[in-house]
TrEMBL record, chains A, B, C, D:
Keyword Metal-binding attached: yes
Protein name: Metallophosphoesterase
A Pfam family reported for this protein in Swiss-Prot or TrEMBL: YmdB
Record-annotated active site: 68
Keyword Metal-binding: yes
Organism field: Paracoccus limosus
Residues where Fe cation 2 binds: 39, 67, 154, 179
Taxonomic lineage of the native organism: Bacteria, Pseudomonadati, Pseudomonadota, Alphaproteobacteria, Rhodobacterales
Positions annotated to bind Fe cation 1: 8, 39-40, 181
Cross-referenced SUPFAM superfamilies: Metallo-dependent phosphatases
Keywords assigned: Metal-binding
GO MF: 2',3'-cyclic-nucleotide 3'-phosphodiesterase activity; metal ion binding
């Protein structure tokens, strides 16, 4: 099965690239199941119901969130009405929605998607992601009721992300990081068969500071003071992520490749 | 001019890859000037004089350090005897050594190398890197006494690194990040001509947690307690970094490409 | 009932003050139940079995720990043999020992003691303390099986400590902070009857940097580099904490006063 | 000379206590020079010109700020017109205003006031406070052109505050902390004659979470999400700080006592 994971959609530039580019990309890559991180799709902060629908209609089978999950307050109720949206398992005990769910891919195959938040260098504290993902992986063994499983580790620190990768190795089809908004070039298959990339990168304009228009971030770094609000950069976006091919019987990764398309970054090798 | 920058050399695996691989790599890529980050070459923590010599003899023209600059106490005196080693400009007012220096590349061309530490998500506090690098860039304009300049932003946060990139854009030949030990895939030339990559990645074994043997980092994440010391992973290392080609007249980047060679990562396109 | 809580015992100076001073202090104050924080009693880092025994023999009915709970590895097994030692409820799912327990005070009265770790500004991440203490307080209502209850919030941030105070207000007899090693002067009874002080302060030598000999902390602040190990300051210690008088029927605080005795700090009013 | 330092004035409750209580308090204590921290006087966030005037008219000779110095944008220009307002020395190189100044106390005596920001556990990074205060103390020796000097260390960590105290010991009349909004009970004279208290505490309503109405902070701790804005608590405020008596000839502290007056905290001993 071919699973496409695209990272944090960043504002209007990211949404446009998804709306226009996701369909053709899936076609060209022969994708069976698509996951898109949407935590920054609305003005760079959170996800509205309308923008969630846009991403789903563009071809995502599942939308994940992150630390910005409920920055748009309407998501607090919308997530209860839309089972294709996942928020981190360890967001907060009081959060609505779910952190893991089994989805259906092409030809009825089952895919588990789960998201966890890191604890290192995050602006707010979250509970232990390792025990949270342990419980989910234990109850959804590969080669049992699910043919594949994907873990989104939404985190800052490369050490924590690599540790999650090894922790899930052999028990998930893909562990992919999000949150830093920069794709990493460490795409690999870990020793027990799990596909891995430390960060998917964002779907956004890379002539920016992590997707935001450069002016205000630079002012804040230089003066230590906020002058204006952050607004997403509006130049052409790069769709960024990873494509993993799994063995339906074992659930393990047999091939993995980075995906970078459009915008300013060097396109991934065809 | 062709400038090669290789990221954090991690322990014995990284040193071996440098000793055996740097010469042939320079040859194949036609490199005029080589910079290697050495802050983790000795047991994963700091750099001894002997290991600094090893890296220089392998072909580095300049060795940069980082937050681990003086983890090996002998570097406090060794750095005063070896002008080819650079420590961060904003390490601490009490630190020995220098944070920027002009080097000679092939055919007598001059290259400025400077290193700064980020302030965001770092384990210790450092002074403002923006004003530190501003002063150095102002006194070393491209196309003046130097034909090229390289800024190593040793930092965790992608936002801070991209902000440094844009801050130096048009004034440096290359801004390259280090410290996360994972290469990023955002290799690009910024709008005013500076080559950029958020992180060079490490020269180390990627079957690890940022270069360290997996067992102890995993135990610490799972139990919250240290059991043993961290030790570098010993598997085959990947040499990771970036190659920038600059215009000797303007000092700007005309071409940039990622470098990944050996070990577990997908090799960079030839 | 009169409950004495003394803060973090710091090294030899703190142990000596406890060994010599706790007995007479209890006598003079007419104490029914005594809790002492021991997380720094052994060289400033953790607690050995021998030092735990010393504190218990000096008159503590219960010893609490903190983020340094298992810095002395022997505590990993010792805590299983000594039920009078409590470690934080939210230390790590893998930690031995317990985070709350019911003790017996004079005349057979029951006292619940529980400890939680804060999440804000701590060097390591811990799980949510609010839901952890909620569960314990719910199953141990005041005026039910326990005549009094004490919550030790081991944390850095005053905001988090005050929030824990209000969260437990009316449901615990005393909420007292530890960890900063400086006593606060905000001793009060909250609006629904819980005694509160943001930090008990340490039992240690205040001519120091939070109990450590001044020289090395100052060197590290000035140079950004470690030169030597930290060692506890050896001057005369101040016993620091709080004394709360509770109503045995309601479990609420009827009186509260700071305790400071010996060493360099101004003694608390008799 | 008798110098009164009062900590962070918190919103309307704090302003009212200053307006009504500072005059009588100065009278009763026989104060020669008064410093008030104003960084939270306006809605809990920053200081407007009008509120600065209110504090000065109530009897402050000098108003210090903190990390919230310019939360009210008008302070960016107001500070240039009002030399009695001091912002931290190490706020940012781009900040307007000054971080240290010599003031005149009763009978023409000179008092240096300087403020520095800590680096540990602060939400934003700041430059090294030790070298910043070193320069100021060196150029303003006690017993020279100034009869007294006061250093406000606006910081979170008790370790950093105590280190600043010892660093300035014998060179300043008083080192007093601000920022945590909780008074500490470690009022003392350090070994070379500098008066010290780790935190002055706030001038605000202590039935709160560091001066803010309890409801929203509690919601955020419990749910991990913001629901509303923070608003200052409106109950009766406690004026909190410290009174130091100095020797005009040596500039050293000869006596020091905490000040707590009104509101919910136990009043300081007369
Ligand atoms: Fe995020
Ligand atoms: Fe994001
Ligand atoms: Fe580093
Ligand atoms: Fe490194
Ligand atoms: Fe602690
Ligand atoms: Fe402690
Ligand atoms: Fe502050
Ligand atoms: Fe404040």
């Amino acid at each position: 099965m071919r699973i496409l994971y695209l990272g944090d959609v960043m504002g209007r530039a990211g949404r446009r690239a998804i709306a226009e580019g996701l369909g053709p990309l899936k076609q060209r890559l022969g994708v069976d199941f698509t996951i898109v991180n949407g935590e920054n799709a609305s003005g760079g902060m959170g996800l509205t119901g309308a923008h969630a629908r846009l991403i789903l209609e563009a071809g995502a089978d599942c939308v994940t969130l992150g630390d910005h999950a409920f920055d748009q307050k309407e998501m607090l109720s919308f997530i209860e009405t839309e089972p294709r949206i996942i928020r981190p398992l360890n967001f907060s005990k009081a959060a609505p929605g779910r952190g893991a769910r089994v989805f259906e891919a092409t030809r009825g195959r089952k895919v588990l998607v789960a998201q966890i938040l890191g604890q290192v260098f995050m602006k707010r504290p979250f509970d232990d992601p390792f025990s949270a993902i342990e419980a989910v992986l234990k109850s959804h063994p590969l080669g049992g009721l699910v043919q594949a499983s994907v873990v989104d580790i939404h985190a800052e620190a490369t050490s924590e992300k690599m540790a999650v990768g090894h922790f899930c190795d052999g028990r998930a089809s893909l562990v992919v990081g999000t949150h830093t908004h920069v794709p990493t070039a460490d795409t690999m298959i870990l020793s027990r068969g799990t596909g891995y990339q430390s960060d998917a990168g964002m779907c956004g304009d890379y002539d920016s500071v992590i997707g935001m228009d450069k002016a205000e971030p630079l002012r804040r770094f230089l003066t230590g003071m906020a002058s204006e609000r952050f607004t997403p950069a509006e130049g052409p976006a790069t769709l960024c992520g990873v494509l993993v091919t799994t063995d339906d019987r074992t659930g393990k990764a047999v091939e993995i490749q980075p995906v970078r398309e459009g915008g300013r970054l060097i396109a991934s090798p065809a």
